[in-house]
Design goal:
The protein has 354 residues and is α/β, with parallel strands linked by helices. It folds into two domains: 98 residues, Aspartate Aminotransferase, domain 1, CATH 3.90.1150.10; 222 residues, Aspartate Aminotransferase, domain 2, CATH 3.40.640. A seven-stranded mixed sheet has the order 2-8-7-6-5-3-4, sandwiched between helices. Strands 9-10-12 form a three-stranded antiparallel sheet. A two-stranded parallel ribbon has the order 1-11. Helix 1 packs across helix 11, helix 2 runs parallel beside helix 11 and helix 12 runs parallel beside helix 14. The longest helix has 15 residues. The two termini are 28 Å apart.
């Protein structure tokens, strides 16, 4: 089922497209586009793009780190972190569903010769300090060298507690390991916790922050950490073909997002709660609502594709994951869109009528 070409151009509030597949589907508004058009640019590979430099410095300061590196995607950011932290034949530990392990094509193993030890997560996406400590390898040439722990916040919409992540980091440091935080949606966690971003990232040596999810920029992530670490990551970015030239056009959108779209994430969280409450009234529909901008539903297997078609006919797009389908609120989803979605679910056959 393709949704290519579906846009909100010229549509009224009642028939506009409501795309709930992900917070990556947001489109830059007029003010963000204007910031992009007016951006000061230069050749970033030569270190001459002032807007990129401003973005890197701003994110590093927000997260309490020494330096930053603008990259094309969160996947590239995580991969560069792994390559900068680990050598061939070394290993990192991560949760079994964490993006750096499960959703990035095995890049660390394919391109870096880095092994991974996945750990079982609990119902909120957490791993524990005890799990990590039990899986750190002894100094024995039969085993890869454990070098790094990769954490994530949020995990499938669940905010990870600072206390647990600090406990994991303490174990890591006691054993001489580094800690990388995949903070693709770190700002959602910060807003939900009511904490500054630096407090959410304080336990990590390096952090990947995505600007193209809930923050609404069209592309880009920033990897932050110590200056010598970022220097290694910059070399890796070039090796991967990730050196960009007049990238200030993109960095300007990211700066706009940081200046205008962090606090408003609370609206996305409220809309997700509104959506979950409304869908919970549908008979036979299992609904799970973490505390940020995601809602998970589990319709019967045979109902998922008919439901998607029913919703698409009404201008509402959802994903097709199984056994649970994720619905994500974001910058382009309003409370009215949520109400339309709830109403459309309720109209899908007797099975879903409340």
């Amino acid at each position: 089922m393709s949704y290519a070409g579906m846009t909100n151009a010229g549509m009224s509030a009642s028939n506009r497209i409501v795309d709930l597949r992900s917070d990556t589907v947001t489109r830059p508004g007029e003010a963000m586009r204007r910031a992009m058009a007016e951006a000061e640019v230069g050749d970033d590979v030569y270190g001459e793009d002032a807007t990129v430099t401003a973005l890197e410095e701003k994110v590093a300061a927000l997260l309490g780190k020494e330096a930053g590196l603008f990259v094309a995607s969160g996947t590239q950011s995580n991969l560069l972190a792994l390559l900068a932290h680990c050598q061939r034949g070394e290993e990192y530990i991560a949760g079994e569903t964490y993006h750096s392990y499960a959703e990035e094509g095995g890049g660390a193993s394919v391109l870096g010769g880095i092994a991974v030890h996945p750990l079982a997560i609990d119902g909120r996406g957490a791993i524990t300090a005890e799990q990590v400590e039990s899986r750190i390898k002894p100094d024995d040439f039969h085993y890869p060298i454990t070098r790094l722990v990769c954490l994530e916040n949020t995990v499938s919409g669940h905010v990870q507690t600072i206390e647990n992540q600090e406990a994991i980091a303490a174990v890591a440091r006691r054993h001489g390991l580094s800690v990388h935080l995949d903070g693709a949606r770190l700002m959602n966690a910060a807003v939900a916790l009511g904490l500054p971003p630096a407090a959410v990232a304080s336990h990590a040596d390096s952090v990947s922050l995505c600007l193209s999810k809930g923050l609404g920029a069209p592309v880009g992530s920033v990897l932050s950490g110590p200056a010598d670490f970022i220097a290694r990551a910059r070399r890796g970015r070039k090796m991967l073909g990730g050196g960009m030239r007049q990238a200030g056009i993109l960095a300007a959108a990211c700066l706009y997002a940081l200046d205008h779209h962090i606090d408003r994430l609370a609206e996305d969280h409220a809309n997700a709660k509104r959506l979950a409450k409304g869908l919970a009234a549908c008979k036979g529909l299992d609904v799970d609502a973490p505390e940020t901008n995601m809602v998970f539903i589990a319709p019967a297997e045979e109902d998922l594709e008919p439901l998607r078609a029913h919703l698409a006919a009404r201008g509402i797009i959802i994903a097709a994951q199984r056994p649970k389908t994720r619905m994500v609120t974001h910058l382009d989803i309003t409370a009215e869109d949520v109400d339309r979605t709830i109403e459309a679910f309720g109209a899908f056959g007797a099975f879903y009528k409340g």
